[in-house]
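Obj.: predict assembly geometry.
Materials: sequence records (below).
Method: joint structure prediction, all chains together.
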Amino acid sequence: MKEIIAVVRMNKVSVTKKALIEVGAAGFTATKVVGRGKLVEDKSIIAERRKTLLALAQKDDQTTEKMITEFLDGTRLFPRRMFNILAHDEDVVKIISAIIKANKTEYKVGDGKIFVLPALDAVRVRTKESGDAAI
Amino acid sequence: MIMIKAIVRPDKKEVVLNELSKAGFHAATVIDVVGRGKQKGITFGDILYDEIPKSLIMLAVKDGDKEDVLDVILQHAKTSENGAFGDGKVIISPIDEVYTVSSGVAEL
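Observations (raw structure tokens):
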């Protein structure tokens, strides 16, 4: 039994949910979280994101520019959605590829992380079933 | 690879995150949580407060970095020289695999 923790973009929640149903792992717990990733070394990716974000903002004031700069230099925490999914060992690979497929964007950064942790046991409260039957 | 979950006071969150970043551990996920510890919460008069707000800082690091990260958290999440009840806990668990979605590669 494994616990899959996936941190994804807020606007990718519905496609992730859809992808999980398609892959047969409908159950999950989701939490609103904030976080940051490792610092991006490739300056050109950052410059490109900065340009797109500034264009999206449609405003040319200093506050917006400062916010976008802070967003990209790693001082700010980004809002993200964290999914906790319990899975049978043999389903882990296909769930992960489904999440990756649903969440990949062309931005190259900020698409999220997926962690696979070992889970010792699970118990279904209603029936007291435990182990793999509880998933 | 290991997952370090640190439950710290909300007002220490910023300090711990900054120090972690300085120590080279920039990536982290932060969740606002409520909970109680061994002291069963805090009692003021007749009222027991057992849902005390804390921040949970989650980060995945290589096995060898465990001590460095622990040092930073334990040093900066403390409220005084001796520490005080409610300063928090650090929980460490194993991670089997990590994937970065942008690249689809199985690494941090």
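Conclusions so far: Helices of chain B lie at 13-22, 66-76.
To do: check interface contacts against the pulldown list.
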